[in-house]
């Protein structure tokens, strides 16, 4: 099947749907690997195709069953990842994650009330409502037409800051295919199935 564009709107979501099952298998693998280090939820945003500006598009959201159960009390979505597919999700942390791809991860401890001001009014704040108050964010490095780009952002959520933070970071760097690591199943899939965008990786 040909690559599809990453974008927003009804038509774009229909295109993204054709690749969603493959993405879900990968987010399941990420969560399965990191749950032993305390992870409870992961989500993925990719940049709009053929665009060097930071324009995130929601691709998937997956949590452990007990986290879903907490959220189910507050919302009607059967599968938040599929429901939010193709949703535009601009945020300060997305911009920061792409700007520091290959250099450092970004963290947010939402116990600090001041940080909640970052959240846009339209943000669902799903993980905070589910009691996941600590998150790590990493810029994904992928190739499009022979050029490396900061193609998106992988987020991993915890109830609190993990004790084995270095191990968490190392595993996230592998999934995001940072320099020194081979291409992960995640990066291989997005390269093969999507027309990527995002700032050039330097």
Question: How is the secondary structure organized here?
Answer:
Blueprint: E1 4-5, H1 10-34, E2 39-47, E3 56-63, H2 65-72, H3 80-83, H4 92-99, E4 106-109, H5 126-129, E5 134-144, E6 147-158, H6 165-175, H7 185-193, E7 194-195
Parallel strand pairs: 1-7
Antiparallel strand pairs: 2-3, 2-6, 4-5, 5-6
Features:
202 residues, alpha+beta, Beta-Lactamase, two-stranded parallel ribbon, 7 strands
Percent helix? 25-40%
Q: How many distinct helices?
A: 7
The helix-strand sequence is EHEEHHHEHEEHHE
Q: How many structural units, i.e. domains?
A: 1
Low-confidence region ranges: none
Q: How are the strands of the biggest sheet laid out side by side?
A: 3-2-6-5-4
Here the CATH topology equals Beta-Lactamase
Report the β-strand fraction as a percent range. Answer: 15-25%
Level-1 CATH class name: Alpha Beta
Broad structural category: alpha+beta
Shape: globular
Report the strand count. Answer: 7
The main β sheet shows up as: 5 strands, antiparallel
């Amino acid at each position: 099947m040909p690559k599809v564009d990453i974008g927003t709107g009804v038509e774009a979501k229909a295109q993204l749907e054709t690749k969603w099952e493959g993405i879900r298998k990968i987010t399941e693998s990420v969560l399965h690997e990191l749950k032993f280090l305390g992870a409870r939820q992961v989500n993925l945003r990719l940049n709009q195709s053929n665009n060097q500006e930071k324009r995130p598009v929601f691709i998937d959201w997956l949590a452990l069953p007990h986290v879903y159960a907490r959220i189910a009390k507050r919302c009607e979505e059967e599968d938040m990842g599929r429901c939010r597919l193709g949703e535009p999700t601009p945020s300060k942390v997305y911009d920061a994650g792409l700007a520091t791809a290959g250099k450092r991860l970004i963290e947010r401890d939402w116990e600090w009330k001041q940080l909640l001001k970052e959240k846009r009014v339209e943000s669902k704040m799903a993980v905070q409502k589910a009691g996941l108050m600590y998150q790590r964010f990493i810029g994904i490095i992928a190739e499009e037409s022979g050029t490396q780009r900061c193609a998106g952002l992988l987020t991993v959520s915890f109830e609190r800051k993990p004790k084995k933070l270095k191990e968490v970071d190392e595993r996230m760097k592998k999934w995001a295919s940072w320099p020194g690591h081979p291409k992960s199943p995640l990066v291989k899939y997005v390269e093969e199935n999507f027309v990527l965008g995002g700032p050039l990786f330097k």
